[in-house]
Amino acid sequence: MEILLVILMGLLYAAGIYMLFRRSMVKLLLGIMLLGNGANILIFLLGRITKGQPPVIDEAAKVFTDIYADPIPQALILTAIVIGFGIQSFAIVLLKRVYVLINSDDLDDLNTPEDEDI
Amino acid sequence: MKSTILKTATSYLLPILLLFSVFILLRGHYHPGGGFVGGLIASIAFVLHGFTYGTENTLKLMRYHPAVLIPAGLALATLSMFAPVLLGLPVMTGLWIDEPIPVIGMVGSALFFDLGVYLVVIGVVLTILFTITQYNE
Amino acid sequence: MINNYLILPVIAHLFTAVLLLFFWRRTVAQRIISIAGSFIVLLAAIGLFTRVWNNGILVMQAANWEAPFGITFVADVFSSSMVLLTSFAGLAVSLFSAAGVARARMQYGYFPILHFLLMGLNGAFLTGDIFNLYVWFEVIIISSFVLLTLGGRKAQLEGAVKYMALNILASTFFLTGIGMLYGITGTLNMADLAMKVPLVGHRILVDVTAIFFILGFGIKSAVFPLYFWLPSSYHTPPSAVAAIFGGLLTKVGIYALFRVFTLIFIPDDFIRTLLIILAVLTILTGSFGAIIKRNIRRMFSYLIVCHIGFMIGGLGLFSEVALMGALFYLFHDMIIKTNLFLIAGLIRQQRGTMNMEKLGGLYAEYPRLSLLIAIVLFSLIGIPPLSGFWPKIYLFEAGFMTGQYILIAAIIIGSLVTLYVVSRMWADVFWKRAPLDDTSPEDRFKRMGIGKKTLLVTPIAFLAFISLYIGLGAENITAVVQRIASEMMDTTPYIRAVLGKS
Predict the structure, then answer these.
(1) Domains located in chain A, CATH noted
(2) What chain A residue is nearest to B126 in terms of C-alpha separation?
(3) Measured in Å, how far apart are chain C's first and last C-alpha atoms?
(4) Which residues lie closer than 8 Å to B31 by C-beta, 6 or more apart?
(5) Cα–Cα distance measured from residue C25 to residue A36, given in angstroms and rounded to the nearest whole number
(6) Any idea of the CA torsion for C278, C283, C287, C290, to the nearest 10 degrees?
(7) SS3 letters for C28-68?
């Protein structure tokens, strides 16, 4: 299980960075998404994966009797996913507006010459 | 989209999905679920309606623009976050009533916070998606 | 112990922002609420600072979960003075925005987002939990994306794409670092980390994690190889937004670097050398960029990069004197950079352009205003006894003590270049005769009513006054930075305050 996740994480990071190096805006966006997912899996992995009960304790009990899953990595990933969702949807809207404005997907066309500054 | 199957299914699915989203919202305290997931399910219901009948009709069905939900939800969440301050407890401390209410269960400030999150998520998701679709039209 | 007071600067901004959302599209009400909200936050920040100064570190455990399990909010002298300076800048920008931002932008939620941004800044300064710091960073960058793109001019959107891509990348690095840190220590509370990280046996793994933090915060604070997004985006938004960005957004990265590298990772020789090399290169590239730019805001953007190097250098030297110098510079820089961009906005209102070739004759037309601006520019250069002068003395002293002559040379070059570009700007914009050009747009500032004029000039005068105080009342600031530096060198009071034990 761990080794699978490690490979998956490496793939996601590598693919994300590769995509970031491309000149297309859409690929930039995909790269950002892949990197974000890679980071999430990294947290999941480093939080030590255990097969166990959800960490909710019975009202009568004082200590855990079963093996339980560490809730913190899950909380972190959930937060990161929510934040990523917000940022990515904003990025999609932004890139779409840019595309409509300059009618190109190439990041190199994003340079207004300096004389046009106000 | 012109498809009888989709239209028929949507008219049944919309209320069921909304009800399901409320169920997910309420069970969120001790089980998987909560405001964020519930809000996503509720917005999926409206997005499905938008697919079938067009965004204009969905907006008409909702009466108010979903963006209205954002300040309302934020205000609710903020108030329930800072209600404990009035009792001299740290921010975000859970306040609970003593006796559970039938069907809903235990009611506390965390529930109102989740309700606020639920509203904000519906508002944000629908505003973003409707803006993108109307941009195309 | 319950200290809800310390979260007040965050709550007040949140309430202001939510209230502003209810006044969507009513721009007059929004302006009033925004100014009132910023003013209340300023009062709260002053109260917080005096409390922390008198009573020591304040701690609040959110939701009453004990540290290290819950999210802790901590106000020590460092964070409370950052909150105080942010509130000064926030009030100034609120005032300036009321007259200096187009109505159309206000109708699309300029003010609520501004307050969310300020809330994020205050939250980032006050949190004592590394993951919570990440969340506040995300609040900051989402708000800054919106502020940067509001209005949707072509240049703005182009700047926003670069800004967005690199800042998201920075967040991912930061998140990766947090993941690794959790993996090796199993905690996220900064005070707890401060105790557990030194005990980790695998030092190389700790260094690798530290590098991830340098990368993440380095992109955010525009350190040498990672600064490209800053000069290509900061000249595009309205000046009020650029003021917040230039004065505060890069500084929150610096704050995080200082916090993480004095509390969690105590820099070893490798990290110190790395930081000093980065600082030297940052100062040099920033100053060379500033020389060639002929647009006021582009030039100021490069000056931001240049002066970031001073602070990173101070951190890299890592002695009490060096930290004092870097912190003093940080305080001076937050106020002065905010003010510079506000001044650029004022010049834009007066002349319709920020190109130095097309500007001129401002001194003949507005002599008193020009003198006010001259105070700010002199403070920036560091003419004794104004505010830019004192921190450099400490930095030099620390540099000579540790024998880092290259850093000293870089700081001297950076200061000289600042002097050169600012005096050239003064000559071009204020003393030179205005170029004879019939196409130049009319003076919008002249036609404004007295109320709007006051709204534009008051914040500049207010911040200039604070800069003057930082310069002339340097002994008080020195007392503050000395206390912060000693708290940084000895973190046991911080750890004890958070965890409730030694």
Answers:
(1) 2-52+67-108 (1.10.287.3510)
(2) A89
(3) 16
(4) none
(5) 35
(6) 70
(7) HHHHHHHHHHHHHHHHHHHHHHHHHHHHCCEEEEHHHCCCC
Structure tokens of C52? 């922390």
Nearest to C179 among A42, A101, A114 (CB): A42
Tens digits of per-residue pLDDT, B20-55? 999 998 887 777 788 888 999 999 999 999 888 888
Burial of C366 (0-12, 13-18, 19+ CB in 10 A): buried
C-alpha dihedral sign at C296, C299, C301, C303? negative
pLDDT of residue C396: 93
pTM of the model: 0.93
Q: Do B36 and A82 touch (CB under 8 A)?
A: yes
**Which of A78, A90, A109 would you mutate first to test chain C, the one with the most C CBs within 10 A?**
A90
ipTM for this model: 0.92
For residue A33, which residues of chain C lie inside 8 Å, CB to CB? none
Biggest CA-to-CA distance, chain B: 58
Phi/psi of residue C79, nearest 5 degrees: -65, -35
Q: Where are the domains of chain B?
A: 4-136
Q: Give the tens place of pLDDT for each residue, A19-48.
A: 988 888 899 999 999 999 999 999 988 877
Which residues, 6+ apart, have CB-to-CB distance to A103 below 8 Å?
none
**How many Å apart are CA C493 and CA C500, to the nearest integer?**
10
